[in-house]
Every structure is written in C-alpha cells, then in structure tokens.
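One thing: mind reviewing this one?
=====
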Amino acid sequence: MDENSLIVLKNNKLISEVLDDIQKINLLIFGIGNAKDMAIRRKSETQVFEKIEKENLTAEAFGYFFDSKGNVKMQTNSVGITLENFKEINNAIGVAAGSSKAEAIYAVTKYNNNFILVTDEAAAKRILEL
C-alpha cells in the first residue's frame, strides 16, 4: 500500500476508531517472524528484499524489520500496532517457534524485552547458543 492510501485509510472513521482503541490495549499477543519469511508472506517489493540482504535484517514484528542488535532498520506501510504501542503495553506475549526463529526472537528482545515469550525447545536451545 502506498503512503497516500495509508493516510486515507487511517482517516477513515471506522479505522481511526480502531486505532484509538489500540491506545487502550492492556494485553497483546503477537508473532515474531524471520525477516525474509515475513517479506515473502507480505508479498513485499524487490527493494524490501534487497534491504533485508544488504543490512542483514533478521526479524519482523508489527511491520517493522530489525537487525540482530534490535535496531529498527525498515518499516512497511501498515495500519495497526506501532512500536510505541508495543513498548507501552504492560502485558505482551510474543509467540515464535522453531530454531529458525531464534535470531528473530533474539533481535526483538534486544529492542524490547518486556514481554512473555512463548516458544519451543528448539528455539530456546538455539537462543542460548546466540
């Protein structure tokens, strides 16, 4: 979605009401994904994949892409939870499983570690190796 369409969408009365409600969330369950896998799932444009490769991005959450140190390096145009919302929500639960998600989990926890992680043994073992 281009930026102009995003602005129009956010100004829609129903969407803006939902965005206002997001400010009141006290419990969030969210997924943590591998940057490349999530770009594929979101049907991202070529330049997104190029940036993922060039900057060695490892994680995606809420439409934001992170490097291994937890730095936000790219944002896709999306409507919903922002990273500011994420940091303000007191009860957040991140979900990711599989050893292939370990680097992504690690990167997101470098950005914000104030959430409960639900994962599996394979991811946990790989995280400990990092």
About this structure: The mean pLDDT is 90.
